[in-house]
Design a protein that fits this description.
The protein contains 34 helices and 24 strands. The chain has five domains: about 160 residues, P-loop containing nucleotide triphosphate hydrolases (Rossmann fold); about 80 residues, no CATH class; about 180 residues, 3-Layer(aba) Sandwich (Rossmann fold), CATH 3.40.50.300; about 130 residues; about 200 residues, Lambda Exonuclease, Chain A (Alpha-Beta Complex), CATH 3.90.320. The chain has a seven-stranded parallel β-sheet with strand order 10-13-9-14-15-8-17. Strands 18, 19, 20, 21, 22, 23 and 24 form a seven-stranded mixed β-sheet that branches. A six-stranded parallel β-sheet has the order 3-2-4-5-1-6, with helices on both faces. By secondary structure, it is of the alpha/beta class. The protein is about 45% helix and about 15% strand. α12 runs parallel beside α13, α26 packs antiparallel against α27 and α28 packs parallel to α30. The chain is globular, with a radius of gyration of 32 Å.
């Protein structure tokens, strides 16, 4: 029985050698088996093998998990669902870790630690008892192993790691007779995987394992793990592979020198680096690069560490440019129509839905028992006219969850409405089948709780319709990229927060405890620091897939406009090259290219139709803007976006538009006139999720301080706790939100203590004054009464740059000068830190960041404020409210309330050729 190691760097041809051997064995009607790390790699190699073997390939490419399912097929029916595993973990943790068990992230950490222990072969009563005995009573480690043991007893079935353990045991007794056994794409193996390899290879005529580097050539860096793995294969003949069959020039140099001491830099003619303005900008520019290249789409590979959270972003960006994109691996199903229908139905079982959600559920073709579409339209019309919603269908209020799902959700109505078929129906059917399995695990819970649990599970599920296109851009995650190669590779997401993933110690077993277990008990659990080696290896994989050219990109700013650092790996890799083409795109350049700007001819039907609906009831315009059928050309009413020109004014709107203004409205106008149009004229509010966002945090802290001022002898901490509990009662809060609650409480207690020592006249003081024919309204957070006059304080509950706030929102403090004629100063105060900026009259003590002004200068500020109010009102009456941001760098999601509806930050939504289609 021959055993060999094929050892070589990227590009030396290890995978091609394996495929050649596999093809020869298949053509000779042998019995080969190739094992790879992930399902994505297995799918890719099966496709390549079908081309090579002329369609005669049997099922001979597996992962360890799919191999286990093949060996133990009769046990698959005993697999516990994810919901069952979650329930078992919750039951155990609530006893041993009662303070943390309710946190969603805590259960996930526990299940990950259990998986790791099983991967290392730590199972069975004797091993767990030995590990538990290492720790003192009551310690975190002892509690973990006790929880591990109880979890095993509570689990109603097997999990996937149990399948691997049982496969190992089954192969000790019998196994398949193989002509050829291959393992490709790995750089490390768990102990359980190694035992499976040895037991399979004992029945194979030839066994070949590929690894990235010979241990004699490896140092302590990227290949340290691979070197340790190679040394462990005693008795295997080593066959080194040299050269580079994939790349030349700079790309070959990168593969040779990556993570080694750099020599003289070489030219980087085939490599570009893009520091893009945002993740949206990055996705759009990469799609544009493909479109403009003139190359076949199949020449490109889009690669990221992971696409979690950005699937929809990349799919939309590539669709805008007409570039087909195919994701390898599953996509989240939470945004599909079937998933949305399931979530709404499950929420309806737990309590009443808002009217707009009830209408959306009744309109869904996946609800089998709802009224006919025309009845739903009549109900919706009644709701708009008189606010009543009387539906013939009501959600069931009792019974088991699984039968209710089976009775009320399905694809039959969708099939009737789409007689020509729809690829989404297949994924919807799989989703409903999965939900039925999960619901069975929850049958012991009350219906409302079971329904909410299952609704929260849906966004975590992954799936997707089968996609067999080849003339497309492939999108592959780094874990699946090992056997890929393409002429041009686009490596995205290379910022410090995403690649590498942050590596932190395990919640239950620290690295020093793991080392002690290995030394004193011979129980080996790898230190988490080894995860850094895996991240480096994945980066090496990502940078060695290109044959001709490569683009490396990252988002240089996050959603709040805060700069992001590039990946530290990127700096290491680029140190090898000179004259590197590095493009840095600031936020201000997120405007559309000239050829992508929407013309006034396209714009006016949308705006005219929207404005005509404003008289049909409150919120009618907002509904129209989200309605694909609002105008004759549906393309022009692109969902959830109002595309406005920077230079085209809206028709004059008259006095009614600006009868009343607030400080925030005027500030919005000063930042970008479109914000006033959206918020005050069109009455459109951007969609918001109910969560512990900055707006809710501010509400909680302001309410708590108001009560603390009224109850001067009360406990400020207890007051905050009551207000927080009231405002967040309907929210599901995790570990991150708990950290936010702690700093919010600390800030309120500090501010309340200081406030009780100051001459506070009132807090949360509302005002309405007349100025330049406009009613100005607002609310002052706090007024201090001094002998010289009133001093206004405006609280900031987040972490803003106060100087920037003063520069961008100076009308707010100045408006308070108009509201209080005897005001002698106004300050912004950051509750979290306690620092202040603003201005005070010169006879009052100031401080750092506080401007000292004379009485004449204060009067000049009041006059300037009146002028700003007058000009704002005049421009609004004329309709001069186009998109024209004063500071484009602030046009990001959280710094601009108009982000979801504006064309500046997300401007490139309509394809040029589609706009030029005849209307």
């Amino acid at each position: 029985m021959a055993r060999r190691l094929l050892i070589g760097r990227a590009g030396t041809g290890k995978t091609h050698a394996c495929l050649d051997l596999l093809t020869e064995s298949l053509r000779a009607r042998g019995h080969p088996l190739l094992v790879v790390p992930t399902y994505g790699q297995a799918e890719h190699l099966r496709t390549l093998l079908l081309d090579r073997a002329g369609g005669i390939a049997a099922r001979c490419v597996e992962t360890f998990s799919s191999l286990a399912e093949r060996v133990l097929g009769r046990l698959l029916s005993g697999l516990a669902s994810a919901a069952a595993r979650d329930l078992a973990a919750e039951a155990v943790l609530s006893e041993l870790f009662p303070a943390a068990a309710a946190q969603p992230g805590f259960r996930a950490e526990f299940l990950a630690a259990v998986k790791e222990a099983k991967d290392q072969g730590l199972c069975g009563a004797e091993a767990v008892v030995g590990a538990r005995a290492h720790f003192a009573d009551g310690s975190r480690g002892r509690l973990f192993f006790e929880a591990f043991e109880r979890y095993e007893r509570a689990l109603p079935g097997l999990d996937h790691e149990d399948l691997l353990l049982r496969t190992r045991d089954a192969l000790a007794k019998e196994g398949p007779d193989l002509d050829l056994l291959l393992f490709d794409g790995f750089h490390d193996f768990t102990p359980v995987q190694r035992e499976i390899i040895e037991r399979l290879s004992s029945r194979a005529r030839e066994t070949i394992v590929t690894l990235p580097l010979d241990p004699e050539e490896a140092g302590d860096g990227i290949f340290a793990t691979a070197a340790r793995t190679a040394r462990s294969f005693d008795g295997y003949e080593r066959r080194p592979l040299r050269g580079n069959r994939r790349a030349r020039g700079a790309l070959a140099s990168l593969e040779q020198r990556l993570f080694r001491e750099p020599g003289d830099p070489v030219a980087a003619e085939a490599i570009e680096v893009w520091a893009c303005a945002s993740e949206e900008d990055e996705a759009d520019r990469l799609a544009r690069q493909v479109k403009r290249s003139g190359r076949p789409y199949e020449d490109f590979l889009l690669l990221r560490r992971t696409f979690d959270g950005v699937h929809a972003l990349y799919r939309a960006a590539f669709a805008r440019h007409g570039v087909p994109l195919r994701f390898f691996g599953g996509e989240p199903v939470g945004e599909t129509p079937a998933a949305r229908a399931a979530i709404l139905f499950l929420r309806s079982l737990a309590g009443p839905l808002p009217d707009h959600d009830r209408i959306a559920l009744l309109r869904s073709p996946y609800l089998l028992t709802g009224p006919a579409p025309e009845e739903v339209d009549a109900l919706a019309a009644a709701l708009r006219t008189d606010g009543r919603f009387e539906a013939a269908w009501q959600p069931p209020s009792g019974g088991a969850l699984a039968p209710l799902l089976r009775r009320h959700l399905g694809v039959q109505r969708a099939l009737l409405s789409r007689p020509d078929g729809d690829r989404d129906l297949a994924s919807a059917s799989r989703l409903f089948a999965t939900l039925l399995d999960e619901a069975e695990a929850l049958r012991g819970l009350a219906l409302p709780e079971a329904a909410l649990r299952l609704a929260r599970r849906i966004p975590l599920l992954r799936g997707g319709a089968p996609d067999r296109r080849h003339a497309c851009v492939y999108a592959v995650e780094a874990m699946d990229a090992r056997q890929w190669e393409k002429p041009v590779v686009l490596v995205a997401g290379l910022d410090a927060g995403h690649f590498p993933r942050p590596v932190r110690e395990d919640l239950f077993l620290r690295d020093d405890e793991r080392r002690a277990l290995a030394t004193e008990r011979s129980i080996v659990l790898p230190p988490r620091i080894h995860k850094e080696e895996e991240e480096r290896y994945l980066f090496y994989v990502a940078l060695t897939r290109a044959r001709e050219a490569m683009v490396l990109s990252y988002a240089a700013f996050d959603e709040e406009g805060v700069p992001r650092a590039p990946s530290p790996y990127l700096d290491e890799a680029l140190s090898h090259f000179r004259d590197l083409r590095w493009r840095k795109i600031p936020l201000a350049q997120q405007y559309a290219w000239p050829e992508d700007v929407v013309s006034s001819r396209d714009l006016l039907p949308i705006v005219a139709d929207g404005l005509s609906r404003t008289g049909r009831g409150e919120g009618a315009l907002a509904a129209a803007l989200h309605d694909a059928g609002a105008v004759e050309r549906p393309l022009l009413a692109w969902p959830r976006r109002l595309e406005l020109l920077r230079t085209r004014p809206i028709p004059a709107l008259g006095d009614a538009a600006v009868e009343s203004l607030s400080a925030s409205s005027i500030n919005a106008f000063l930042r970008c006139p479109y914000l006033l149009l959206m918020r005050r004229v069109l009455a459109v509010e951007p969609p918001r999720e109910r969560e512990l966002d900055p707006q809710l945090r501010g509400t909680i802290m302001h309410r708590a301080l108001e009560r603390a001022a009224a109850e001067r002898e009360g406990d400020a901490g207890a007051i905050f706790d009551e207000v927080f509990a009231e405002e967040t009662r309907a929210l599901r809060l995790g570990l991150g939100q708990e950290a936010q609650r702690r700093w919010m409480r600390s800030a309120v207690v500090r501010a309340a203590g200081e406030m009780r020592e100051q001459p506070v006249e009132c807090v949360e003081h509302p005002f309405r004054i007349e100025c330049e024919g406009v009613t100005l309204r607002g609310q002052i957070d706090r007024i201090d009464r001094l002998p010289q006059g009133a001093v206004v304080r405006d609280y900031k509950s987040g972490k803003p740059d106060l100087k920037a706030a003063l520069a961008l929102e100076d009308i707010q403090l100045d408006l308070y000068l108009l509201a209080l004629p005897d005001a002698v100063g106004a300050l912004f105060e950051r509750l979290r830190v306690g620092d202040r900026v603003g201005f005070l009259r010169s006879d009052l003590p100031g401080g750092k960041g506080i401007e000292s002004l004379t009485a004449e200068e204060l009067d000049a500020r009041r006059e300037r404020t009146r002028r700003i109010v007058r000009e704002t009102a005049e421009r609004a009456r004329r309709g001069a409210l186009a998109v024209a941001p004063r500071d484009p760098e602030s046009c990001t999601r959280t710094q601009c309330d108009g982000y979801d509806l504006c064309r500046v930050a997300r401007a490139r939504w309509l394809e040029r050729r589609a706009r030029e289609a005849p209307g």
